[in-house]
Amino acid sequence: MTPPRTPDQLHRFGYLGPRGTFTQMALDAWDAAEGREHLPFGSVDAALSALRAGDIDAAMVPIENSVEGGVSATLDSLATGEPLVVIGEVLVPITFVLCARPGMPLADVRTVGTHSHAWAQVRGWMGRHLPDAAYVPTLSTAASAAALAQPGDVMFDAGVCAPVAARNEGLEVLAEDIGDNASAVTRFVLVARPGTLPEPTGADKTTVVLFQRDDHAGGLLELLEQFAVRGVNMTRLESRPTGAAMGSYCFSIDFEGHVLDARVGETLMGLRRVCAEVRFLGSYPRADGGRPDARPGTADEDFDRARAWLDDLRA
Amino acid sequence: MTPPRTPDQLHRFGYLGPRGTFTQMALDAWDAAEGREHLPFGSVDAALSALRAGDIDAAMVPIENSVEGGVSATLDSLATGEPLVVIGEVLVPITFVLCARPGMPLADVRTVGTHSHAWAQVRGWMGRHLPDAAYVPTLSTAASAAALAQPGDVMFDAGVCAPVAARNEGLEVLAEDIGDNASAVTRFVLVARPGTLPEPTGADKTTVVLFQRDDHAGGLLELLEQFAVRGVNMTRLESRPTGAAMGSYCFSIDFEGHVLDARVGETLMGLRRVCAEVRFLGSYPRADGGRPDARPGTADEDFDRARAWLDDLRA
Amino acid sequence: MTPPRTPDQLHRFGYLGPRGTFTQMALDAWDAAEGREHLPFGSVDAALSALRAGDIDAAMVPIENSVEGGVSATLDSLATGEPLVVIGEVLVPITFVLCARPGMPLADVRTVGTHSHAWAQVRGWMGRHLPDAAYVPTLSTAASAAALAQPGDVMFDAGVCAPVAARNEGLEVLAEDIGDNASAVTRFVLVARPGTLPEPTGADKTTVVLFQRDDHAGGLLELLEQFAVRGVNMTRLESRPTGAAMGSYCFSIDFEGHVLDARVGETLMGLRRVCAEVRFLGSYPRADGGRPDARPGTADEDFDRARAWLDDLRA
Amino acid sequence: MTPPRTPDQLHRFGYLGPRGTFTQMALDAWDAAEGREHLPFGSVDAALSALRAGDIDAAMVPIENSVEGGVSATLDSLATGEPLVVIGEVLVPITFVLCARPGMPLADVRTVGTHSHAWAQVRGWMGRHLPDAAYVPTLSTAASAAALAQPGDVMFDAGVCAPVAARNEGLEVLAEDIGDNASAVTRFVLVARPGTLPEPTGADKTTVVLFQRDDHAGGLLELLEQFAVRGVNMTRLESRPTGAAMGSYCFSIDFEGHVLDARVGETLMGLRRVCAEVRFLGSYPRADGGRPDARPGTADEDFDRARAWLDDLRA
């Protein structure tokens, strides 16, 4: 086994590109990536494949949006294939601008290009201000700005993107803050190859994917009881199809605590026993610094005391 | 209150268009829509808005794909706004073809247009046969075929769509059955305004959206216990962000049985008591005809016997 | 079916005798029995047999002591045979005196007679004051006083009984308040034939005996979930052997609420479904007047609102 | 700490006397006690006090009867005071005879002496054959035989006891097998001071007393979930009053497995965390040799594999 690589040993950072996306903003907010190499990828799959192949040392990818929900490409790519682990998370507030080539009046906009997730988040604004505008999908929000910035014909009159993308491309901003949900946030995770386990900070999260042994009724209930009985709180639960058949699901779950915590360790062992497979996707510091609010009897000291008591009984 | 409209009174059927999509295939498979008016809409939102406005009587929309998971646009549009109900479901096997203008050899394909969900389901095939092809997003799979069929410039060399769309548009099929998962199925639901409650058939499903009273740990566990204690099996559970804040979720759930079944009624009342809101999205016959496998003590006759016994005690 | 008899129609009250027992004190504390006929019986079985036979209209019997626990004879006699129901309860503080024939000094007491349950409750005092006294079992505490009061030989020098028994029999009290637990209380129940259902008062209790369908692991857990999911609190749980085999138990349970309460009704139906048998032993006002502290979503109004909502969905 | 005493080091065995009781039969059935000193005690309390004081090395006492239920004196004496542990159990089939002084005809029996627990188990036979016989309580079944065997006056005409007691005392057996339940069994436990932990045999039991942290609704449910989530089956659950107040209970529980088993260890730690106190009363071989029927995922190997997997994640 190779010695664990500490975050200091991460040199090449991939991200879901192109430049000007919210994902780049997330990577820019990651201190340990400052001054290192940043490489854009065309898709989450491409970034994670490069990571698995050793071409990069870490990848920043979106995993969850407070309005649109889980990012399927990331969830599914982490859930299968060569193991990867999350080593950190970044929360980025999401604000959209409507931008166009200089000189285009808002009233003349007939077509709008952007990524489908962004479009879903500005539908309200569009309904009120450009009810007749047609939607043209692009590969990313930044791609809509880039297309407008290129000379020649373009498929749409205006784009929806992050303020930084409009600025980068020298476009005119027709309207700011056009997201329907002012408090929209996207959560990004920094992914690495196994071998890097961040130290527990007391305010950590752990991510797993659970595959049930069989699809019996009450199966999910049984999994959740493994958390409840040790007082471990979940912060995200997504069901994702395994692809095997309609109705066959696995569960992607984030929960409070670190794999080195006693209560998390016992919970993981319990899940391991009752699941067909538990895929461990890492323990890492929470971006919001929130500490778990342990029910009586479920703090780590309670686990330690119980262990000491048992050792004594067995002696 | 207007008298309930029976399915016979449904005359105008909307669907997620354009022509040539899998959704149209689902509507074609719905016997009661034969010979009625079929109207394509550009988005799930547009179809459901027209339904809410009374412009159409029912809308066929996708809700769940066995490979890609829940269809967020449908889930979210049903979960908010004026109430709508599901009155039926259709399962459509998903098969994709690669098509192009007549004369284009497979080896010359450099760019491929299709809907992002379809692209996700043919990535494996593309990696093996067209590893260097660039992806161009379109609004639907059928839209990629339609674009190729129009004269003049087009943004891509080939499209990925349903066989029927390639045929409709007179395109050449370069490769058949290119989906990575041969058993991929999409589930469509026929949605109507409340007032239409299909009769129980003994093989039914009910759909609800549950909003928790507060986001306390163990909240989901409490909801699932309401099902378990009455022996009601879930067939789908999706968490969807409410948009209020990162980590604030509602749950979209399908389960076995009909609102008129005793055990379903008691389950719904239990959920209503412990949730902030229960949004009832209809009871309808299952497309697969599967009957629930009731645990001892949870069949409808058990509920009836228990009710008779209680009435006797109270007399 | 005979018309229900109201408590006013109860004329003949049996009790676990003889005169001078705590059971008589309980019956004396029952207002509705004032001025009616009071008949002592030699055992709980004898009293309940007379009640079943119609020789008496009600019987006051002990069911639970705060120090000694459940009274097996009562629990078992109610759990089998012709149905009977509890229609009320009385709490009696338990205080014991040591009594003897006039002239007997405490220091000369060598043998002490009393009922085995009373002996268990004064062991501490005896250990400190009469460590060498031998114990002689009697059929009741009052019987020990009665024996001392009769002329001629007696099997013991002193008795342990209620203050009233010593007074009734003209005995000398050698020591007062000799119980080891100053707050000892015994709970008595007034039992009648079915047909008498006390009105709900808002502060009621219900008693049942539950027989499991099979003795599978987790069987009791399943029963308790029927209570938990409707927010119904248990106030007593006793396991009693069914006699069928070592390890075969039924459960005698008291819980808050009245059979006419919505949440109690649904709980009883749930138990009826999952149990081999539910024996209903009555709903009656609590002696302590305590009202249930319903969790959010489990008050009767919550059940009513949920029912109205369901009726609306089904309309 | 003194080195653990193995059963071979037990020399003086106390039991609930007098000679001729079922408890003596249980001690006779305990191979390791053969040839050692056997000392009868007048009560369970007396035997366990002598054990705590070091006057004896072990004590055989009854704990549970298949007809009459738990033996309160034993349960309560083990639950409080200086710790003791169970190191073995014996099952004794219970058969009663009716005996008298030679020459007494059955038809002349007017009074019957025996222990109250025995009387409870022959009530049916008495109702059929001696419906008018009065009951006289004695300290034990053997004491009734001993009283009849002594010269001079006696308080009753016949006794109910074990066949061996009638034989020992030279009495005449008027009727055999008079127990109402032909398969009645009493379970006895051999109790010792802590320090003796029998080896796991694969067919073991563990006994604990659980004191809840507070008497909240659902408290017992929470305790049972600690067992359920590790697949540990209970074989006995008794609630016993703590004496603190009416309705304040602790739980005396036997369950399958040995404290050295992984799943039992984790269960005990879980109970320790959520309880105010867990009193460990020993792990010992089951008298019936029954092995636990572990649910999938709850066998000791499952625990071992889960531990190895976790250790690997943490490395």
Structure, explained:
The structure is a homotetramer of 315-residue chains. Residues 1-5 of chain A have low confidence and may be disordered. Chain A has helices at residues 22-28, 44-53, 72-79, 116-129, 141-149, 163-168, 219-228, 262-274, 300-314, and strands at residues 12-16, 37-41, 58-65, 69-70, 85-93, 97-100, 111-114, 134-137, 158-161, 172-175, 185-192, 204-212, 234-241, 249-256, 275-285. In chain A, helix 7 (219-228) packs antiparallel against helix 8 (262-274). Chain A contains 9 helices and 15 strands. Chain A has 3 domains: 10-93 and 184-196, D-Maltodextrin-Binding Protein, domain 2, CATH 3.40.190; 97-175, Periplasmic binding protein-like II (D-Maltodextrin-Binding Protein, domain 2, 3-Layer(aba) Sandwich), CATH 3.40.190; 198-310, ACT domain (Alpha-Beta Plaits), CATH 3.30.70. The first copy, chain A, has 315 residues and is an alpha/beta fold. In chain A, strands 1, 2, 3, 4, 5 and 11 form a 6-stranded mixed β-sheet that branches. Chains A and B meet through helix 4, strand 8, helix 7 and strand 13 of A and strand 8, helix 8 and strand 13 of B.
